Amino acid sequence: MKSLLNKTLSLFIFQCCFAAGVHALSDESRHTFSVGAESFLLDGRPFQIRCGEIHSSRVPREYWRHRLQMCKAMGMNTVCAYLFWNYHERTPGEFSWDGQADVAEFCRLAQAEGLWVILRPGPYACAEWDGGGLPWWLLKHEDIAMRSRDPRFIEAARRYLKEVGRVLGPLQVTRGGPILMVQAENEYGFYGTDAEYMGEIRKALLDAGFDVPLFACNPTSKLKQGFRDDLFPVVNFGSNPQEGFAKLREVLPSGPLMCGEFYPGWFDTWGSPHHTGKETYLKDLAYMLDAGASFSIYMAHGGSSFGLWAGADRPFKPDTSSYDYDAPISEAGWTTDKFFQTRELMARHLQPGEKLPDPPARNPVIAFDAVELDRFAAVFDNLPSPKKEKTPRHMEAYDQGRGCILYRTTVPAGGAAALKTEAVHDFGWVYLDGKPIDTFDRRSRKYSVMLPPRDQPAVLDILVYAMGHVNFGKEVHDRKGINAPVFFAEHGQDAVALGDWSVYNLPLDAPMLAGLVFNKAGAGSRAPGFWRAEVIIKTPGDTFLEMRNWGKGVLWINGHCLGRFWNIGPTQTMYVPGPWLKPGANQITILDLVGPEKASIAGVAEPVLDELRPEKDFSGALRPKTVAQLAPEKIVSAGKFETGGNMQTVRFGKNAAGRFFCIESLDAHDGKAYAAIAELDLLDPQGNPIPHATWTVAHVDSEERDGEDGTAENAIDGQTANYWHTRWSKGGPGHPHRLILDLGRRETLSGFQYVPREGGPKTPGRIKSYRIYVGDDLVGL
Fold it and tell me: What are the distances in angstroms from CA 663 to CA 309, 619, 751?
């Protein structure tokens, strides 16, 4: 294999040099870029890529130049630009490339600031973006297979990539532009193994007119999944570059080394602690610089997931609208200690004659006193014409991709009754004759509520709120709203499926907001509803809206959707870019689905990104107190994991069936009292990973939530750069440590895959001895 890869690499280098060279000969202003035998070559000379990722869609267009100047001043020579398919093709066949979506202008500005560009067009992106960038309208096909050779997916992806080529192809380095390389797909090894699918995406990019080097990225444990030797491989990791590059050398025996995503921090999810960067960030970055390896810092500047574009991790961990990421450049574009530390490190590794410009000044920041929101529009008083259905269907079936949707029917008079369904995505508030009863909650898979006795027939409303399509794993097939029939059963009677539904689309878009009828707010202003007021601002500037008074919902200012808020944290403010404000009156509209404590809002000069308030959660505690019930006869496997950070696969002696899976850590390789897991996958009888969509954490003996985000869900979210870690900051129990998963249904398992937490040989928490239990009754209350 090694000789074959060497031959293939040589051919690949020749093709890249030839493609770049032909164009360069015709115009002296054009540059050449190629993959050399030992390094990347820019105009035939070795070139170390020092890249920082910035997403144009997460930065107000008015600030693009400022953020690019910040990136350059930090020491980067390249910027990485992600495209989100669903951002540019919101309706099939209709593309948007203007205004905030004008990525070509973003690339031209990067070139003007002396930055090269690495383009990542997808079709799948991940990036904690709604659906990972995959358009919601694909999900109208009930049986479509995303990220596969399903003709419906491939045809749509080819159409999109052809359009990307039309718009951005002229900006390739081969034509005088800044684009050096183009990525095919993203981390496909986390999703599948079909190299022919990756070949389809490669061909679509070539057919779209891209003639610069094409590359694929994957984490260290998945580099061989879907591997093709005609796509240049790079590796993604958050620490331990030595191990990451050693794994890359297994598929790339020679050629330049590159980390496609190097994580200085991490993103936040609602209800979990705010993330900060790893202690080894500068050390690992210095290692790559000294080794001559290239890298892209993900993120150099995270920005904000404005609108309703924030996604959700699997099984279901919705992402905050703040995408600060603890990046060197803050959400509002400020310098940080990490910025200056990175800049100082880069300054020691510049090319001859290269100088770093000073960072641009911080944009002005303002604050304003609290303002009462004095007008109110109730959701139930502002309903559109309904659609009639026998059985409720998911949101996408009604040509809606995000927002809210209301399902209404009538239930008969009678005694207390159970209301159940298979899945509500993502939160469903249940009302009887307009009175709140209970809530469906996808986080804990709470899809059953009790209805009180009724003297006469009552109107049943289920108001469902979507929090962003899951952006990772097979769970990208994430249809919103009610996904199954709704059953009704009084005590002692058989359940019956409710029919005769009226379905109301509430997409929270501009036409819906324009049609709201507001009245004076008062004591009768009850959630769910919209509150509105005008804020008088003398001189606009950046500010942060204080959201602690509010519950859960969405906020707009002057027609710009800032994103989602939720009082459980960790984010307690919302970033407002100064250019979105104006002198004089500024209109603020807030949808609150659970209701504010006080209908007022203020602008503050500093963000609050790290305040958790679990007591505010409308569904109560997500981690009920449980006990592990582990009998010796439920043990299906026991053994010892190897040292190091490689993914390890364990096969059971024979298949085991049950609803619950438990991994019990008996000791750790470092001899200390902690356990940690980056990722767990369970294997079906054919050895394939099973989807996580129905999984929840049933029991965990401890988890760290103060010193870091070590929550147990990190072990099943598909992200190997974060991890479950047992409690350490305030003391914690010793071994054995137990993590029990509720799979949501009985599964037959043939084994599992375990990924240790990233880091060097002395990384704490890597499990040594373990036991595995599978059964239907591993947890008690």
Answer: 35, 28, 12
Q: What is the CA radius of gyration of the chain?
A: 26
What residue type is 29 in one-letter code? S
Q: Which two tokens stand for residue 236?
A: 């993604």
* Backbone dihedral angles phi then psi of residue 13, each to the nearest 5 degrees: -60, -45
* H or E segment to which residue 111 belongs: helix 103-112
- Side-chain-side CA neighbours of 141 within 13 Å: the count stands at 11
Cis ω for the linkage preceding 386 (within 30 of 0)? no
Find out whether 423 and 451 touch, Cβ atoms under 8 Å: no
CB-based contacts of 209: which residues, under 8 Å, 6+ apart?
Answer: 165, 166, 169
pLDDT in tens, 175-200: 999 999 999 999 999 999 999 999 99
Q: In what order do the strands lie in the sheet with 560-566?
A: 519-520, 375-378, 529-537, 584-592, 552-557, 560-566
- The residue written with tokens 């952006």 in the block is 471
Q: How far apart are CA 682 and CA 741, in angstroms?
A: 11
Is 630 in contact with 778 (CB distance < 8 Å)?
A: yes
Distance CA 244, CA 240 (A): 6
List C-alpha distances in Å: 333 to 184, 363, 365, 518, 702.
29, 8, 11, 36, 37
- Residues marked as catalytic: 187, 261
Q: Which tokens in the block code for residue 390? A: 């026998």
pTM exceeding the 0.90 threshold for the entire prediction: yes
Q: For 647-650, which contacts have Cβ atoms below 8 Å and span 24 or more sequence positions?
A: 647/221, 647/222, 647/679, 647/753, 647/754, 647/755, 648/753, 648/754, 648/755, 648/756, 649/683, 649/751, 649/752, 649/753, 650/751, 650/752, 650/753, 650/754, 650/772
Which residues is 321 bridged to in the sheet? none
Cβ-based neighbour number of residue 707 at 10 Å: 12
Q: How far is CA 658 from CA 140, 194, 442, 634, in A?
A: 33, 30, 22, 10
The pLDDT tens digits of the residues spanning 743-780 come to 999 999 999 999 999 888 788 899 999 999 999 999 98
CA–CA separation, 85 vs 121, rounded Å?
Answer: 8
pLDDT tens sequence across 203-255: 999 999 999 999 999 999 999 999 999 999 999 999 999 999 999 999 999 99
DSSP-assigned states of every residue in 70-96? HHHHTT-SEEEEE--HHHH-SBTTB--
Distance CA(165)–CA(171), nearest Å, equals 9
